[in-house]
């Protein structure tokens, strides 16, 4: 997956296994996270919603007013690049592939950005507060998702992020 113009490392931060079926039918399985990003809801107050339905008497229903918060949001992170053997773009005489520890002979340290998979509600709450991060994505559970006979999503064909505008 390219987000930063380079290959990234995917980490699942949901409490469920994420299964992605690629176009070439290869299946990518990302294990569930034991410490997932969590969405918390807090009831602030309760109001009464009065409504009218044609040919009916006026009625009311309780209306909860809630706010949401998140916990466990990871900071933007990178891991050493040396596993990926990406070449250094320096032009010095010591130019070469990274060796042990992700460092080029010229001293350049290589790192790969981590992209975290979170739930769509988490992305929506972050967007509602004006936070848009390229390193947070969610399974795309829209019309391209693979569903079982009961309509439950069993795999996705792609990941998604919310547009910032």
Give a description of the structure.
The chain has 165 residues and is mainly beta. The protein has one helix at 120-128; strands at residues 9-12, 18-21, 27-30, 38-51, 59-71, 78-80, 111-117, 136-139, 146-147, 153-155, 159-160. The strands form 4 sheets. Strands 1, 6, 7, 8 and 11 form a 5-stranded mixed sheet that branches. A hairpin with a 7-residue loop joins strand 4 and strand 5. It is extended, with a radius of gyration of 22 Å. The model is unreliable at 81-85 and 96-102 (pLDDT under 50).
Relevant terms:
mainly beta, five-stranded mixed β-sheet, 1 helix, 11 strands, extended
Count of beta strands: 11
Write down the overall mean pLDDT. Answer: 82
Low-confidence stretches: 81-85, 96-102
Rg is: 22 Å
Q: Can you summarize this structure?
A:
With 165 residues, this protein is mainly beta.
Topology:
Elements: E1 9-12, E2 18-21, E3 27-30, E4 38-51, E5 59-71, E6 78-80, E7 111-117, H1 120-128, E8 136-139, E9 146-147, E10 153-155, E11 159-160
Parallel strand pairs: 1-7, 7-8
Antiparallel strand pairs: 2-3, 4-5, 6-7, 8-11, 9-10
